[in-house]
């Protein structure tokens, strides 16, 4: 007795044979019409005798007892929606994904990022909000010579540990705004009033490094120049400030090294107008590095050279 699978294959073969026979019948009919036309033109045998010969050929070629299919049907090996059909589709999808994964990926040319591109992911300064709330002990005055800060009390009475980091945090504000002027002018006047008084600044340096680091991370030339001037001013407050800055060279000198190496490029016969626009950062950075070496003690040059390899000692003969 044939098994279930054998029966299924026999039925499929029977369907395929019946379909092939129907195709052959269509070809015979088409050829018979063509021959009838040719015979009518040449005056040969009658179309009736030709038709009888074709009919006899058809009967000899196939068994007339089998029913002819009305239309061609695609044999289905599985029932749609069954478990076998779902497993087959899942295997086909898995195989397709494997082939796609094995295909060699096109090699894209990596674009080199611009190291001097302005960074916009720096946290926003809180100085504008504090000034709007009235938390700062100063106001802006419009004088004939320009803008100025009016303090509510003498500067030596202020808590430097609280206010100096706040003004340092506002250094990275956009240039030309009132808050930028308040921050930079406030830092300048606070440090200027602390000349000779190391107790006001030494305890605050650790709190001021993070705002200065955020300001340098913006990579805006005006902000970097303002930070360079602040560091230069800090080094002149007291001889003990220079050695106190050495542990923070890694946070400060990384961005300064980037702009320090930017200078010295060959412009050909072109002219550089950065000195007139106050955008030339190479000279101010060189000056502040020299001042940090002079005020930092014997270990300052080694630490500066580690972060700025192109720097040359100011004490070299």
UniProtKB/TrEMBL annotation:
Residue stretches of biased makeup (Polar residues): 45-55
GO terms, molecular function: Hsp70 protein binding; Hsp90 protein binding
Region (Disordered): 43-75
InterPro entries according to UniProt: Parkin_co-regulated_protein
Pfam families linked: ParcG (PF10274)
Protein name: Uncharacterized protein
Organism annotation: Triparma strigata
């Amino acid at each position: 007795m044939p098994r279930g699978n054998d029966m299924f294959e026999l039925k499929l073969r029977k369907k395929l044979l019946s379909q092939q026979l129907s195709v052959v019948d269509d070809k015979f009919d088409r050829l018979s019409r063509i021959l009838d036309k040719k015979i009518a033109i040449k005056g040969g045998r009658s179309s009736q005798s030709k038709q009888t010969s074709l009919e006899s050929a058809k009967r000899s070629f196939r068994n007339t007892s089998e029913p002819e299919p009305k239309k061609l049907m695609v044999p289905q090996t599985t029932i749609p929606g069954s478990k076998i059909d779902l497993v087959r589709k899942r295997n086909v999808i898995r195989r397709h994904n494997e082939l796609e994964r094995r295909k060699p990926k096109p090699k894209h040319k990596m674009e080199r990022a611009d190291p001097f591109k302005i960074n916009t992911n720096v946290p926003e300064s809180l100085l504008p909000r504090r000034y709007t709330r009235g938390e700062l002990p100063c106001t802006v005055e419009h004088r004939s010579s320009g803008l100025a800060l009016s303090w509510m009390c003498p500067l030596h009475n202020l808590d430097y540990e609280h206010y100096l980091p706040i003004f340092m945090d506002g250094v990275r504000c956009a240039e030309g705004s009132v808050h930028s002027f308040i921050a930079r002018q406030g830092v300048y006047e606070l440090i200027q009033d602390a000349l000779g008084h190391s107790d006001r600044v030494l305890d605050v340096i650790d709190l001021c490094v993070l705002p200065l680091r955020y300001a340098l991370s913006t990579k805006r030339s005006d902000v970097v120049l303002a930070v360079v001037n602040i560091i230069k001013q800090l080094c002149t407050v007291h001889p003990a400030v220079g050695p106190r800055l050495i542990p923070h060279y890694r946070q400060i000198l990384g961005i300064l090294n980037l702009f320090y190496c930017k200078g010295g490029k060959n412009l050909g016969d072109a002219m550089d107008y950065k000195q007139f626009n106050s955008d030339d950062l190479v000279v101010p950075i060189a000056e502040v590095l020299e001042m940090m070496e002079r005020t930092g003690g014997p270990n300052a040059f080694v630490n500066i050279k580690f972060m700025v390899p192109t720097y040359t000692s100011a004490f070299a003969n």
